[in-house]
Amino acid sequence: MEVKKDNTEDKIIDAATDVFVQKGMDGARMQEIADRAGINKALLHYYFRSKEKLFDAIFTKLIGIAFPRIGQIIFSELPFSEKLEQAVGTYLDLLIKYPFLPAFIVKEVNRDATPFFSFIERSGFSVDPIKRMLQEAMDRGEIRPMKPEHLMVNIIALCVFPFAVRPIINHVAFKGDDKALKQFLAERKDEVKSFVLKAIQPE
């Protein structure tokens, strides 16, 4: 008889992601997470002894989806324009799958940035390889000269902002039409890539 894989941990992380996004770290309750996961609280504590450990597990999962792929793109031999297109596409795929993630991160960082910064340090993530890639592209004349930090922030803002203020965009631009908003966000992949590539062309 085939043994069915235990997916309790995945259920917990999925349930916790919903609760954390909706209520933040302070408002999240382990009992509610257990209820949404369909388990008892004792079993939840068996897998994750605290909200902080569960919070870290969620970030590890979400970042683990996109960061390895983005790293592969950055260190590949692809032309810069293709690297940019693929990296933006990968990042936006993550945001489309988890549209409430940017607002959640902004809220939690403004509440207390220490846990988020600690997680980044533990993960070993660094922007230095990205900055080097951008500077090398400028040195080769592939893109116009600018501070790499400005280009990184511009790209991130173009990707993240519509997701961070989804309710406002939905109300103002689409009169509460969720279907139209979803289509708009899906179109961002091509729009952002096209906009950035035109903006960085050598003068």
UniProtKB/TrEMBL annotation:
**TM regions (residue ranges):** 151-169
Spell out the Pfam families in the cross-references: TetR_N
Q: Which InterPro entries match?
A: Homeodomain-like_sf (IPR009057), HTH-type_TetR-like_transc_reg (IPR050109), HTH_TetR (IPR001647), Tet_transcr_reg_TetR-rel_C_sf (IPR036271)
Sorted alphabetically, the keyword list is: DNA-binding, Membrane, Transmembrane, Transmembrane helix
Q: Which SUPFAM superfamilies match?
A: Homeodomain-like, Tetracyclin repressor-like, C-terminal domain
GO terms of molecular function = DNA binding
Q: Domain HTH tetR-type: where? A: 6-66
Which ranges of the sequence are annotated as binding DNA?
29-48
Protein name (record): TetR family transcriptional regulator
